[in-house]
Amino acid sequence: MSKIAEQIKKISQSLSEPTWLLSWRAEKAGHAETLPAAIKYGISIHAVLPPNEVPFDQTADYHVDASKGLELYTWKEAIAQEEIVPILEGLMKSEFFPSATDHFSGIAQALFRSGIVAYVQPSLEEDGTPREESLHLDTLVPKGSSADIVVVIAKEGAKLSLTSALSGGEQTSVFARTVIVLTERDAHVRITQKHTLANGATALFSSRGIAAAHSSVTWSAIFAGAIAVKSGTENMLIGDEARGEIREGILGGGSAQFDVFSSAKHLADHTHSRIRAAGLATDTSRTVYRGLIDMVEGIRAVDGGQEARFLVLSPKAEVDAIPSLDIASKDVLSTHKLSISHIRDTDTFYSKLRGLSDEESKQLFLEGHFAQVFSTGASTECFNPEFSTEGLSRMSSRQGFPGEDNEPIMNDIRTALSGIRPV
């Protein structure tokens, strides 16, 4: 028996997993051996991956705060639930489970030692309106390497807001996480992800939302700090009128390396998707951003769009952005917009007229750059509108600022921006 096979057997036994899950892990490990340990997206554009083999032999710690109506289980508890096990088995054996694209992510899926399963059923407020359940999941990443899995199962008519925060680790830490959101009809799930890992740590994320008819999955993520991240987020829209949205803010500073891929796959009629990203790069950071709208043959009345805008604030920083469309049907609407620029004098002209200094004007502009992504009702026509005097007045007083619908996210972005001095 190989070393990894022994590891899988011990992990599966310690979690009291059924035999099908042991076989599933072995299959993932075998597939991982066929996957590349280094990936190139183009000339001199490389994926962000660990330089050496990773054992994933540690276990992450969790702190959770959940609303009373939410059923929450550890992985070991979940696979003992008669109602949940068939759903997990069907999901993990299906094409809906996110497949690893690199060797390290594949090994992580085979060797994960912990996980959380949220089972969300519909509930009502006292006035009869649907209640949105809430879950705050704080994960302490250990020293060394670890991997886990998070599964959300949203039953028909259920609503959930999940906030996930990562912290801890050290310079050599590697953490891998697979997140799957599975919805039934009329279910709505919002996921917010924040990362404050130790400088030099590496994180590998593989996330997928599966939206059934009249359901929605919305991802909001912030990538910041002098860390290395490879992240893949996809919404699969499998039912009529399904909706998916991905919003990402990428703040590259120091020696940060970010490799971010966002995609929407339309598999049914009347589906709607949006991918929006804003980023900046300073110091010697490097960002690779890729976006994809995929519309399969035979679907109709489909709307999908992606927009990404990046600012380069240092001569040694690098940004490579690659948007793409894969359209196999005619009765669809699909768009993409991309820009990589720097802060221009015209971007800060009006705020200076209001009496703000050059540095204050640049900081205000950077906030607006990200706020356009995270504002629930923001127009996606343009990320950097020419603000009117009235608009700047509202922004400087923190009232009516685009993005106030997601104030906690904007506060995190402001904190990250406070350490950045545009040149």
TrEMBL record:
Regions crossing the membrane: none
SUPFAM superfamilies to which the protein is assigned, alphabetical: Stabilizer of iron transporter SufD
GO biological process annotation, one example: iron-sulfur cluster assembly
InterPro entries: Fe-S_cluster_assembly_SufBD, SUF_FeS_clus_asmbl_SufBD_core, SUF_FeS_clus_asmbl_SufBD_sf
Family indicated by similarity: Belongs to the iron-sulfur cluster assembly SufBD family.
PANTHER family in alphabetical order: FES CLUSTER ASSEMBLY PROTEIN SUF, UPF0051 PROTEIN ABCI8, CHLOROPLASTIC-RELATED
Protein's name in the database: SUF system FeS cluster assembly SufBD core domain-containing protein
Organism: Candidatus Lloydbacteria bacterium RIFCSPLOWO2_01_FULL_50_20
Lineage: Bacteria, Candidatus Lloydiibacteriota
